Amino acid sequence: MVRLTLLGVLLCTLRIGYGSLDSEVFLPPAPHNCPQNCVCTADLLSCAGLGLQDVPAELPAAAADLDLSHNALQRLHPGWLTPLSRLRALRLGHNELKALGRGVFTNASGLRLLDLSSNELRALGRHDLDGLGALEMLLLFNNRLAHLDQHAFQGLGALRRLYLGCNELASFSFDHLHGLGVTHLRTLDLSSNRLGRIPVPDLAALPAFLKNGLYLHNNPLPCNCRLYHLLQRWHQRGLSAVSDFAREYICLAFKVPTSRVRFFEHSRVFENCSETLARASPEQPEEQLHVQVGRSLRLHCNTSAPAVHVAWVSPQQELLVAPGSRNGSIAVLADGSLAIGNVQPWHQGIFVCLATGPRLHHNQTHEYNVSVHFPNPEPEAFNTSYTTLLGCAVGLVLVVLYLFVPPCPGCHRCCHRTCRCRRWPRTPSPLQELSAQSSVLSTTPPDAPSRKASVHKHVVFLEPGRRGLNGRVQLAVAEDFDLYNPMGLQLKAGSESTSSTGSEGLVIT
To answer: Cys-Cys crosslink for 372: which of 212, 348, 430, 491, Cβ 3.0 to 4.6 Å?
Structure first.
């Protein structure tokens, strides 16, 4: 009996084991320390949209991207990121955070992206962002920030993009950027705030690459002539932060919200701004340089005092320090100057020099606007000169031919024998008939010897073309007609016979 009982227990145990293999062997194992209802895949941890009021107690140490957005988080505890040593991106947007506090981001030295947008933050303290030395992008837009500590961004030396739009800031320190360095910073968004006082000299002293990414639209800016000329110049230079939002740059004409005018559309407000004030802008224009492709170029960082550290920013927004660029086409020399051995089209643009040192009151910048163009091809210039010379030679030959060469091969003999050279029509003309008839009526024989012509003699020609004069003779006096011997006239009869001439009388015209 005991044996049967043991055998039954053994069969039941085997059946349960086989059943467990059929139902559970293919289920994926639960991730280690993955919070409930969250998604954990590889190095990604997403707990977005779960209505969490507090951060989960246990977080997987392998997480490199943590998403806690669209929850109801109200505060962050100091040291809560200690287990996440691999964290690179932290998303805390669309929560209810009202403050941060000191030590919140301890052990987050590798963090690159921090999203704190769409919260209820009202101020940033001096130590709220400590421990974020590698941070490159900070999103703080759509909060209620009205105050920034003078050194709120002191430790963010690698920050490239800072978004502070859609807040309640009434002032911002453009001289030191609240502790930010301009070496890496490329985007500073201050749009849609309450900035009413902006120091124009501090804006003008910013480097060109930061001006290109400084967004100030949708702020109640003052209708100041200096600010107008500065923004107008930025707009003419094509800085994207101004040109892309030109219609959204407004100012208050009478310090009243209802007196808003657009900077670049209502120019009548700035008609009283003198041109002298525009030319005396505090912004130093960049130095213009023109260089041909293939030539060498060297740029010097001109500062008011010797600089200890010099860095350059290329037109492609690459930070250049010794020894030079990544592709090796640009070199930064020991004296801080920049050298390009073989200029190419991609070197065109604005180069900015950043200089720092104990003798400099503040970081100084110097800008070069380099224009690269191709040289004029020499073969085309040679062909043009050759064509012009050939045209002049051909023209000269044609002029000589026109002046000295007769128009026909036998014309040189026509100069001596004019009568033979002319080709008369075969049908005799009325002048030939008249000449023949006048020779018949002439009183002087044709073979008589010629005598010396008197100075008062003229040749008489009979007028042709008139017929039907009833036998009357009509004369025309020419050069050999003798005024003292009118009886020697040659006469021509009309259509009738010559015998009728005497009967009707002589008519001389």
So the answer is: 348
Burial class from Cβ neighbours inside 10 Å (0-12, 13-18, 19+) for residue 180 reads buried
How does pLDDT run across 213-243, given as a tens digit for each residue?
A: 999 999 998 888 888 888 888 887 778 889 8
Pairing of strands 161-163, 187-189: parallel
- The alpha carbon of residue 201 and the mean position of all alpha carbons in its chain are separated, in whole angstroms, by 27
d(C-alpha 124, C-alpha 151), whole Å: 9
Question: What φ, ψ does residue 488 adopt, rounded to 5°?
Answer: -85, 15
Distance, CA of 338 to CA of 44 (rounded, Å): 43
DSSP-assigned letter for residue 338: E
**DSSP calls for 65-115:** EEE--SS------TTTTTT-TT--EEE--SS------TTTTTT-TT--EEE
The DSSP-derived string for 374-392 is PPPPHHHHHHHHHHHHHHH
CA–chain centroid gap for 117, Å, is 35
Per-residue model confidence (pLDDT) at position 108: 87
For residue 449, the model assigns a pLDDT of 45
Q: What is the largest CA-CA distance in the chain?
A: 194
| CA dist., res. 79 & res. 114, Å (int) | 16
Q: What pLDDT, in 10s, does the model give residues 232-280? A: 888 877 788 898 998 899 888 776 777 778 878 766 777 777 654 555 5
b/e burial code for range 454-477 (CB count within 10 A of at least 16 → b): eeebeebbbebeeeeeebbbebee
Helix, strand, or coil (residue 274) = coil
Computed on alpha carbons and rounded to an integer, the radius of gyration of the chain in Å comes to: 53
Q: Judge contact between 90 and 113, C-beta under 8 A.
A: yes
Cβ(185)–Cβ(215) under 8 Å? Answer: no
d(CA 466, CA 463): 7
Burial class (CB in 10 A: 0-12, 13-18, 19+), 209: buried
- Taking only the tens place, the pLDDT of each residue in 454-497 is 444 444 444 444 444 444 444 444 444 444 454 544 444 444 44
- What is the phi/psi pair of residue 430, to 5°? -60, -30
Q: What percent of the chain has pLDDT over 70?
A: 66
Which pair of tokens denotes residue 116?
A: 């704190």
| Sign of the torsion formed by the C-alpha atoms of 58, 64, 67 and 68 | positive
Rounded CA-CA distance 356/337 in Å is: 14
Residues 6+ apart with CB under 8 A from 71: 47, 48, 49, 50, 51, 52, 53, 94, 95
